[in-house]
Design goal:
7 strands, Alpha-D-Glucose-1,6-Bisphosphate, Chain A, domain 4, alpha+beta, 157 residues
């Protein structure tokens, strides 16, 4: 499996960051070459499903996901319970789990901790290139979370 974690501080309260992170369609605004569509009637909560399509033309692939854990943050103050969302990736190209926590920090700030534990097909590719895939995940999702932080900070002013 390819595993990685990315952390990003955001100059906005936890509830605002949570709202942005679970607005699945907005992920397409932050992640290059990605469009996200919700495929269930409700976009929120356990059981919600969405598909991230990443790439260009014939080089694109679908990454379908189902929410398995949905715990919004308990508040915006340090010490309040962090929010946690986890999804199962069940596509033909990417399989595994992804999740994020939104942790309240002092001064109306918060922190997002994003983690993934995935395999790609063919599965032996993950075994051979796991460290490279983990590095690519850290770099790619790091850029995505920085874009999210800029967007949320701009909207919260």
């Amino acid at each position: 499996m390819a595993r990685f974690t990315v952390t990003q501080q955001v100059g906005a309260p936890a509830d605002s960051v949570w709202a942005a992170m679970v607005d699945w369609r907005r992920h397409g605004d932050w992640a290059p070459l990605t469009a996200v569509r919700v495929t269930t009637a409700r976009p929120d909560g356990v059981g919600a499903e969405f598909v991230a399509r990443t790439g260009i033309g014939r080089l694109a692939f679908d990454d379908p996901m189902t929410v398995e854990l949905w715990q919004p943050p308990g508040g915006n103050a340090p010490g309040d319970a962090p929010g946690r969302c986890e999804v199962v990736k069940r596509g033909r190209v990417v399989l595994g789990r992804a999740g994020f926590s939104v942790v309240p920090l002092p001064s109306g700030r918060s922190r997002v901790d994003w983690d993934e534990d995935v395999t790609v097909t063919p599965h032996r590719l993950t075994g051979l290139a796991g460290p490279l895939l983990s590095l690519a995940g850290r770099v790619g999702f790091g850029a995505t979370l920085r874009a999210m932080a800029r967007d949320v900070e701009r909207r919260s002013r």
